[in-house]
Amino acid sequence: MTYVVRRTEPGEWRQLRALRLEALLDSPTAFGTSYADTAALADEVWRQQAAQHATSPTSATFIAATEDGRWVGMASSAPPDDVPGHAHIHGVYVAPAHRGEPTALATRLMDVGIRWARDNTDAAWLTLGVHEDNERAQAFYRRLGFTETGKVVPYALDPRKKLYIMGYENFRRAG
Fold first, then answer.
1. Of the four listed, 38, 75, 96, 112, which is most buried by Cβ atoms within 10 Å?
2. The pLDDT of residue 174
3. What is the dihedral of CA 2, 6, 8, 12, to 10 degrees?
4. Which one, of 151, 174, 168, lies nearest residue 77 by Cα?
5. What is the CATH number of the domain that holds 121?
6. Mean pLDDT computed over 64-87
């Protein structure tokens, strides 16, 4: 199967909403929001979010789509408001039927997000957060060159759990 990986467009809020809700049902601890809260967002919030991530000079959402246009993966890159000098990869998801090495969609999405952050921000560091129980994601990020930073923050939906902050070692050195 052939996939297209590209940046979202401003009017694609319905597709963005559908894929985010699918991701929250499939992998609820991989994100910092609940399905119920996300499903309750007004259409206008989705329109604004889609427009921002399609046009912002420093943040973007990328999707992977099948030949027939069905969205099956996503990843976003943006500078976090509260951490100067950093860019952050977040919202990484690939639908179960499209995961694994034959498609390498997660790797392609991460490559696009990393390249976007490098080319469109002046951030010195690239980070991401991964749930303490998501060993598969931790291993995947390590294979891409992310390492543990030693920083741990409470998981927003259950502060008894932790998010490990991982950093991309070669963010500014790699081309």
1. 75
2. 53
3. -20
4. 168
5. 3.40.630.30
6. 92
Domain contains 173: no
Strand partners, 128: 166
Amino acid at site 87 = A
Single-letter code of the amino acid located at 106: A
Asked whether residue 17 is assigned to any structural domain, the reply reads yes
What mean pLDDT value characterizes the chain? 93
Structure tokens at 61: 């959402």
pLDDT in tens, 10-36: 999 999 999 999 999 999 999 999 999
Q: What is the pLDDT of residues 103-123, one digit of tens each?
A: 799 999 999 999 999 999 889
Most distant CA pair in the chain, distance: 42
List the domain range (segments joined by +) for residue 96.
Answer: 3-168
Q: Are the C-beta atoms of 97 and 64 separated by less than 8 Å?
A: no
Within-domain flag for 175: no
Q: Where are the alpha helices (DSSP H) in the chain?
A: 13-26, 35-39, 43-55, 105-120, 135-144
Q: At what angle do helices 13-26 and 43-55 cross, to 10 degrees?
A: 100
pTM for the predicted model, two decimal places: 0.93
Q: Which amino acid is at 116?
A: W
User: What's the structural domain count of the chain?
Assistant: 1
* pLDDT of 175 strictly over 60: no
Please report whether residue 174 resides in a domain: no
Q: Which two tokens stand for residue 93?
A: 């998801």
How far is the C-alpha of 62 from the C-alpha of 160, rounded, in Å?
31
